Amino acid sequence: MSRNFEELDYQKTPLGELILRRRRVPIPARGDLEIYEVKLGEAFLMSSLFHDVEEALANLGLGALDAGEWDVVVGGLGLGYTAVAALAHAAVRSLAVIDTLEAVIGWHRRGLVPLGLKLTGDPRCRLVHADFFALAGSPAGFDAGRRSHAVLLDIDHSPRNLLHPRHAAFYSPAGLNALAHHLHPGGVFALWSDDAPDEEFLQSLQAVFATVQAHVVTFPNPLLDRDSASTVYVARKIGAG
Predict the structure, then answer these.
(1) What's the CA gap between 32 and 128, in Å, rounded?
(2) Quick check: 241 pLDDT over 50?
(3) Secondary structure of residue 213 in the 3-state scheme
(4) Are residues 198 and 222 in the same domain?
(5) In this structure, is residue 13 part of a structural domain?
(6) CA 112 → CA 58, 117, 118, distances in Å?
(7) Quick check: 59 and 150 in contact, CB under 8 A?
(8) What's the chain's Rg over C-alpha atoms?
(9) Helix, strand, or coil here: 30?
(10) Could you list the residue range(s) of the whole structural domain that residue 30 is in?
(11) pLDDT per residue as tens digits for the range 224-235
(12) What CATH code is carried by the domain that includes residue 179?
């Protein structure tokens, strides 16, 4: 196989064929870059070329918390950028990263992706093979009834563009209210979306949380030679007292 392209893993999953690949891409003014990409079926899920918004998800979400020590949940492991950005905050006491695709967790444990060993080597971090949406809607939540200070979610492309139709219920006021039950007072739910701010989804968030913001995050896209943009929603539960 060419040194410019390598398929690192292929797995059949309940959501479709999952592929991890590495390739070299010539980028103007930056030379050849080694890029890791994940495909699910015919759709591109993520690329190491673009991770600004994944990091912004952690920084904006955790930046809305009060000072203290935090127990954090990340929904969706991907290439690990949100989780690593969360662990960069010294106040993070524990981090549970939940992914329904066991193969993705395996990539990190085997060191097939650049950030894998950094995550598995941090004692605060544990990788959990589970369905985030099922846990969010369950009475026990993410950790046998233990509440979290922040939940950072990056699984679906947006609240409307879903990886599976069964995820839709989560984005309703009832689904968001179930999630909020698993947050401490003053806790934060933050969500990555590849779409522009969605007024209907903002209204659903406002029906559950005390404060809601939609941050448009722009980042350079060297493949298109222009900026691209995504949205990070940050919703905070009413505080104690």
Answers:
(1) 35
(2) no
(3) strand
(4) yes
(5) yes
(6) 23, 9, 12
(7) no
(8) 18
(9) coil
(10) 5-46
(11) 677 889 999 999
(12) 3.40.50.150
